[in-house]
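Let us work through a complete example step by step.
Step 1: write down the sequence.
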Amino acid sequence: MDVDKEPVPAKIEPKTEATKADEEEDDGVDMMALAQQIHRLHTPTVGLDEEAKAALSATILEELGNPSLYKLAFAEDILSDDISKKLNELEGANKVKGEKLQESIENATKNAGDMEILDASMAYAKFAFSSLSKDEAMKAFEDVSALPKLSSGKKIDTLMQRARVACFYNDTKIANKLTAEATAMANDWDRRNRLKVYDAMGKILTRDVKGAAALLVDCIATFSCTEFCTFSEFVLYAIVSNILYLPRVELKAKIIEGAEIISCAKSGEIPEAWKLVNSLYDCDYKSYLNALCELQPVLMADRFFRPHCGYVMRELLILAYKQFLDSYKSVTLESMALSFGVGVDFLDLQLSRFISVGRLTAKIDKCCGGGGAGIVETTRPDLKNAQYQDMISKGDALLGRIQKLARVVDL
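Step 2: predict the structure and record it as tokens.
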């Protein structure tokens, strides 16, 4: 018997787009937004004020009634007697409710059909996600996946829910595995489109920003994965990742002139990212560095970009230096510093660092230039020479590894 059902409107208030009930939580709390709040609580440079902390505490204790999540979120706080009492009461209440939900599964198994068994199992799984621990939630959704006569659509939906549970608890390895499994099974456009966002977020967490960029830019016009992130968050991910890899022509066509992104930008939801991409395209490097400084706290406050904030900021800075230097065969440090709105000494230090590690194909001549500041001379190796140098460096690295392995074998 096929137990796939027609989609119904989502119940989660913070999200405006219509989504399928099977991909949403029935308790009215946006769990992925809650994960962002918990991340901000644990990020020293961002943090939450007392009012926001109180609101987060109320959401976990009153709306979700999840003592294990409270202990995880407020692990660094000393629990007061009132909070400890409240947590004990919630554990008892959750135990009773969980037993009742499991009894309903048993009753449905004995006296009802496949649809009723699925509904009862899903009700317990969603309760476990909102009010119990990670292991109990994962086990509950696994039990749903193991139900007989479950349609392929429901199996995929359950895999996606398990992926969200894993992602909520920052278990990237399991989340990526479940996403890959669901993607291999998905044969309808809607689920495959939403799974691209799941896959992209997993790639960001593993620092495969280029892979994530390609997936995100494909979903801009057809975004419907509101159970994972809001559209404004999605646009932020799409802009920051694609600015690093898209050529100027494609960046203008797909990002700067994209109707969906323009609409989001006009609403004032992504001012830092919008300013960043436009200033880079307009070669307004002073404004670009200002936007970069404004973007950093935004990336720090996001749980997907936070582990790689330093890497992303460095790559964005190198991107601007490359674009500027590509326009010149040689330029004075003083002129370049003026364009970027920084001091000559600061720029000298930055360029020296990136040139020394091979990220910029240029050299600094301190004997020339106005006021003794020096000039930057760009060197543009041809493609064949660059491939040759890359082959030589990789060959040297391989020989070094072989020699180390040979020494180990000899021992």
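Step 3: interpret the result. Residues 81-111 form the longest helix (31 residues).
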